[in-house]
Design a protein that fits this description.
Chain lengths: 146, 225
Amino acid sequence: MFILIVGCGRVGSSVARTMLREGHEVSCLDEDPESHTRLEVGLDRGWEDLGGRFTVGTGLETDALVAAGIEKADAFIASTNGDNTNIVISQIAQRRYEVPTVIARILDPLRAEWYRQQGVHTICPTRVAIDMLESAVREGAPREVA
Amino acid sequence: MYIIVVGAGKVGWNLARELLEKDHEVTLIESNRRRYLTVEQELEHNVLYGDASELWVLERAGIERADMVIAVTGDDEDNMLICQVAKEKYEVAQIIARVNNPRNRAHFDLLGVKPSVSATDLILRLLEHEVPEYGLVHLLDLQEEQLEIIEMLLGKDSRVTGERVGDLSMPEGSLLISVLREGKGFVPGPDTVLQAGDEVLAVLDPGREDDLKELFGPAGGNGAG
């Protein structure tokens, strides 16, 4: 698969490395050229040497998306640090470029839920944390009464 | 009307003030605490502090009963999202979005966020209007209806000066709707004779501009004006 990841922070770069290691073609797009360094954390060779691609630009720039290969992408991951950016660019990937698999990382549970109902595949880390915390508390044992 | 304005920058603040003066009910939402405190000194309870891309903030502002939502923050993604949510989730009848970067306009359209307003585009239009060498000025584009209204100034050498309107061979899909002469406008009849210095307004299907330029332009030249 050809996977395009927009937003190369902790989440994006980690997913990028894993997907590349699993044999996929991976292209990253980030507005910060420095994020390329993050991509190479823990790698013994350079990102490009391993076959990865990296483009500097934002997910709203059509030129940057095309340069990063959106027209032939099988999967699109929106993992920038802005919820609204992720929501907007994942809809662009879906509607304009008809990428078959589009996934948006959305931190706000309310927005994540509503856009999920609208047909955007959303991943909400906050929701996951809330659920884990709640079940961890439920599983805890009460204080023993002396 | 009840109108929610998002973003208390220069545009939003002045807009809210004008709307209040016109006796509308207005809530202005601002996410920057310092800006909020400044604006609140003047607009008081009409300003709400919060991030309007959070749905509960919109709900607290009473979006369910809003007649209109206007998003004029400096961030295009925020304006798109707020308007999309207002329209599709809360079924607000009318939305207006500000486009900060004109390159993003296509994204607004793609997400169904219309109408959208871009200051850059407006200034460009004005420039076309003020700089006569452009010849043909777009006054209005009705994208949905696939129509546009344009204005052209007839120069001395225009090939239609001295002609009766009834004798013009207007291109298919275009109609002459008005003539502005010496500061006054009127609807031309077939016997109206066009003069140099007339500004003519025409409604046409998009893409017919060149045919009109050809017709109204100077004999053997390129474009009127």
